[in-house]
Amino acid sequence: MFCPKCGHEAEDGLRFCMYCGQPLSARPAPKSDSPVKKFFLAVLRALVYFLVYLIVENVVVFTYEMAMLAGPIAQVVIAGGDVYAMYDALIEDLYVQVQQHLHLLLILSTLLTILIYCIQFRIRHKKPLEEMHVRRVPVSRALYALLLGISLQVVVSLLLYVLPIPESLVESFNEDADFLYGGPVVIEFINIAIFTPLMEEIVFRGLIYTRLRRGMRRGIAVVLSAVVFGAAHGHIISFVYAGLLGLLFVLLMERNGDSIVVTICCHAGFNAASYALAYIPDSIPLLLALGCAAAAVGCGAGYLALRPLGNAKEAADDAEAA
Fold this sequence. Notes:
It is a single chain. The chain is mostly helical. The protein has eleven helices and no strands. The protein has two domains: 54-131, no CATH class; 136-166 and 201-322, no CATH class. Helices cover 73% and strands 0% of the residues.
């Protein structure tokens, strides 16, 4: 180690130069990680957050399934029956029970996952809300994003209705969707319109995307996070429109102070609007008129939600909301 002021060599561990008294740095300057190392560390961090989300959800559902099977199996064994002979009946009954309580289980898994995220951030002496990018935005921005999400649901539903999608794909898509709509309507709506957007935006935008962009080019991180978001929805149709929504949500987040509050609102509007559309008559002229109106409203709301943040009007809205 050499003194930066006088140039004399100093022994390691000394805090001051013995010749001129210049404070010495006890630690060498940290070496920056290579781009490859940064890339893989970013992917690893994003993968860990995704696996926590996936594992907690599956553990909650699996635990419920085992608890529901334990009683009937015990009764069959005590009665001297053949469990294997009743397997199909037990599984069919379990399917119905899971469908009835699925949304309650998903709400529980959402709360547990967020709790786990918060605990590990606190252990690392970090602020959970800041790490998950839950940051304040003007109320007007949240409302524009909500309106944009509602409009997008109408447009996407219309496109799925009029586009020449193979019937087999549509049928399998509807079968997957039907499984999600079987429990109490109130619990179902609360989960799909509130807890699902909250959980998915924390995971896919607040944690996965923000970690990916630390170790790679922004464009690659945007596309990669959108692909993961689309793939998490399972079906090929869901993959396409969810992936495109993922691209939009990233742009919406970055245009609004890097906050996922606006993406949560947009996502919530998109999910909630699907319930209202179920009551629309199956009339092509009506659907086309509704689609055109939604496209116009969506363009206006999208323009307002995607403007650079920071003008005086929105600052006043933010102050009023506080």
